[in-house]
Amino acid sequence: MKTLEIPTFECETGNHHTFCPISRVAWLYQKIEDSFFSVVGTKTCGYFLQNAPGVTILAEPRYATAESEEGDISAQLNDQKELRKICFQIKKDRNPSVIIWIGTRTTEIIKMDLEGIAPKLERQLGVPIIVARANGLDYAFTQGEDTVLAAMTHRCPEYDCYAMSQERRDAIDNVEEMNAAPAGSDRSNPKGRKLNNQTLVLFGSLPSGVASQSNSESKRQSIHVSGWLPSQRYAELPALGEGVYVCGVNPFLSRTATTLMRRRKCQLIGAPFPIGPDGTRAWIEKICSVFNVKPDGLEQRENQIWDNLRDYLRIVIGKSIFFMGDNLLEISLARFLIRCGMIVYEVGIPYMDKRYQAAELLLLQQTCEEMETPMPRIVEKPDNYSQVQRMHELKPNLAITGMAHANPLEARGIDTKWSVEFTFAQIHGSANARDVLELVTRPLRRNNDSILDWGSLSRQTLEI
Amino acid sequence: MKLAYWMHAGPAHIGTLRVASSFRNVHAIMHAPLGDDYFNVMRSTSERERDFTPVTASVVDRHVLARGSQEKVINNISRKDEEQCPDLIVSTPTCTSSILQEDLQNFVDRTSLSSKSDVILADVNYHRVNELQAADRTLEQIVRHYLDRARKQGTLDRSVTDTPSANIIGISTLGFHNQHDCRELKRSLRDLGIPVNQIIPEGGSLKDLKNLPRAWFNIVPYREVGLMTAIFLEKEYGMPYVSVTPMGILDTAEFISQMEKLVNAWASVLSEEKVNYISYIKNQTKFVSQAAWFSKSIDCQNLSGKEVVIFGDATHAASITKILVREMGIRVSCSGTYCKHDTEWFNEQVQGLCDEIIITEDHTEVGDTIACIEPSAIFGTQMERHIGKRIDIPCGVISSPVHIQNFPPGHRPFLGYEGTNQIADLVYNSFNLGMEDHSPDVFGGHDTKEVSTKSLSTDRDLNWTPEAGLELNKIPGFVRGRIKRNTEIFAKQNDITKITVDVMYAAKEKLST
Description:
Chain A has 464 residues and is of the alpha/beta class.
C-alpha cells in the first residue's frame, strides 16, 4: 500500500473531546448476541458507560464494570483471584459464549497482566476470554471496536480450502434458487453467472440489516461474502487464513486490518469505505477488480441513488461544513458531502492511518478535483479551543461535533449535528445514503431564523 | 474488585467539577486520559447549558506514562490562564492521576507563581470519597482558600449587614432541580424580608467570597453539598446555620421557625425589632400551598395506607419519606439511601416512619426489595424508575441520578411552598396512573388495536418470504410498521406479489422518508 501525500495535513495538540473507546462495548454487546463485555476499570469508566450510552444500560445489558478498588490498585488483592471471582459470577448469571475483557487506563498503569491471566482462567472457566485493551491513553472512541475486533481475529477458525469450497458450492446453489424467484434481482444477477471463486470476509460491525444489504450488493456482482467479523454470534466467526480476502467497511479498523494481514495471512483489499453512493460504488468496484469481475450496472445504480437524493441535495448544495472530529468517520463523510456539493472547511480527526485510509484519501482528492473545491485541511489530534476560534472566523453553516460543544455552538448561532449519531445510525451502502443526508440536513431544515434574529443566545462574550 | 452495572453517585472528580463549573469564571483542568471529559457532555446536554463547560483535560497518554507529565500540566494551566483569564484554575485529580501519583501539588505551586489566575489542587481522594463528598469538600476548600487569603490581606469585612441576610450554600450544576429550588428559596426569603447575601457555588463570584461572613446566618438546603462549608463558617466566623431541608409543609415550617430564632438572636444583639413568622407560615400552609388542603381532600383519602418504597440521596429520600407518612398518610414499606457516608443521620430521620431501612450502593438490592414488597408506587432515582417499568409499578423521580427529563425548563422546585405543590402533583400522578393502568385490566382491557387496522397490512395477496419476515423483525419496533407499509405500497405499485429481502431494500431506496 502506498501512502498519499496530503498537502493540507496538520497535527495539533490533541486537547479535544471524544468518547472513551470503552464506549464501543455498548454497541458491540448488542451486535455479538452471546457475548459479555467486562470493563476492567474504575468508577470513572463505569460512570461514563452509564451516562454515555444512556438508557441502554437500564435494559439488562450484557456488560458491566469490574470495578477496581483501592486494594486492587495497591496489589493487596490478587488480580487473578479477583477476576476469577468476577468471571464465575458472570458465567453463573448470564452464561455467555464468550467474555471480553476491556482493558482500561487503570489496567495499563498498574500493568495488570490481562493477556497472561486470561488463558489460565479460560481453562478453569470453560468460557473463552478475549482481551482487548481499549483505553483512553492510546485510542479514541470508535478505535475501541478496532481493538476488540483485532483481538477477536485470533479466535477465528483456520480457513480450510477443501471444506470451504464445498460450503461455497452450497451457497451458490442457494443463491441460484433465490435468484429464480424475485423479478428485481434477475436483471442484475443473470442466472447463468457463477459466483466468483474467491473467499471474501468483511470486517467491521454493522447492524445486521445493513450487513445483509452489503451482502446483497456484492451478490449482485456475483461475489459471495463468506463471513463477517464480527458475526452475529461468537460461534459463527468466519474462517481466516491464506487465500482469504478481507475488506473493511469502517475507516477506524486499521489494527484489525494489520492483524488480519500479518497474523492471519489474509489479503487486504484497500478500498474507500461504503459510505454514500459514491463510496459504495468505489468500494464494490475495488472488490470486483481484485476478483477480476466486471462490475455490472454500478454506474446506473449510483445515478439512480443520486436521483433519489435530489430533495436533500437541494438543501446542502453550497453550504459549508466543519468537522471537529471525534469518531474517525470524518474523511469518508467529508468526501461524500463534498460530492453532494458542500464545502468542507476542516476535517478534524483523532487519528489518521494514511495507509489504511489511502484509497479513501485518494477518492477524497479526486472528488475535490472533480467538484472543483479546494482540498479541506485535515487536522489530526485537533485542539478544540483553537477549532472554536477558527469556527468563529469561518462561520460554517454546519458543525459536526460532539455533545460537549453542540449546545454552546447552537447558542452562538452555529448549527450543529451531533457526531456520535453517525456511529450508530445506518450510514453504509447505497440504500442508506439518504439516512446520512437525513442526519446532516436535520439542523439545516429547522426553521428558526426568527429566533436567531435576536442574536446569540449566550451571555458569554466572544473573545476572538 | 466488584462487578458493577450501575452506580448512584459518580466518581470523586465529578463532584469537584460540579462545584468548580458552578462558580463564575473558574476553570478546571483534569489530569486524565482522552475521553474523561464526559462531564462536559453531561453538563451540556442534561442542563442544556449554553456556554462551553469550563473544563479541559490535560491529556494523559503513553508519553506521560513513560516520562511523567513534566511540563504538560504546567503548560496547559498557563495556556488556560492566558486564553480565558479565569479567576481560579482548579487542578482536578482523577483515578488516573491518583494511581500515577504525580506531584500535582508541585505543578500547582509552580504555575501559581507565574499565572494571573489563582491555582489550587482539589483535595479529594479518588478511592475514599464519591461525587457528593468530593463536591462538599471542594466547596469548603475554595471558600476556605479565599477567606483565609482575605484575612491575611486584611480585606475581610467582618461587619454583619444592617438588615437580616442569609447565604444559600450548596446550589450547584447538575444538582436535582437545584435551579428551581434556588429561585423558590429566594422567593421565600424575600417574603420574610431576609435578603440573600450570596448564593454559592452556582453563579457565585470568587471576588465576593470574602463577604460571606457578612450574612447573619447560612442556609444549607441539601445535606450532600454545603454542610462542610457551613460548619467551617460556624467554627471560624461564628456564623450559625440552618440545615433543615425546607421540603414538605412541616419541614418548611420548621425551617422558617429556625430562621426566625436566628434572626431574633441577632436582632436582640443589634437592638432591633424581633420578627414573628408564625402568621406567614399559617397563611402559606393553608392557602398558598395546596398541599395541606390536598392532604385533607378525598383524593388523598384514597391514597391512605397504600404502600410505597422510597430510595434516593439522603436529603430527598428522608424528606419524601416524612412527607408521605406525616402529611399524606401513605405507608412507607421501605425507605433507603445510597449515601452510605450519611447512614447515621438517615436512620435517625426516618426511624419510626417506615417498616424497613435500606442503605446500599447496589441497585440490584434495591430492585429485589421492591420486587419483594410489590408497592403501589416507587419514589426513587431513574434507576428505580426503570426497575418499576420492568415490574409494572409507577415511579416518581425524586432524586439524582437523573436524566435530561429531570431538568425541566418549567418551574419545578421541590423546596418551599411551591415545592409542596409540585410534590403533591408528583405523588398523586404516580398513584393515579397506577390505578388507571389496573382498572382496564379488571374489565378485560379497552384496547381495540386488534380490531381496527387502517394499514395495508391486512392485504392477503402480498406474500412475505420468511427471510424478508426475519429481516423485518430486525428493524426497531417503532419504525417497523412504517417500513412494512412502505414496502407493501412499493410492491403493489410494481406488481410484485412476493416480498423478498431485495424488494425491501429496493423499497427503502425509493420510498424512505
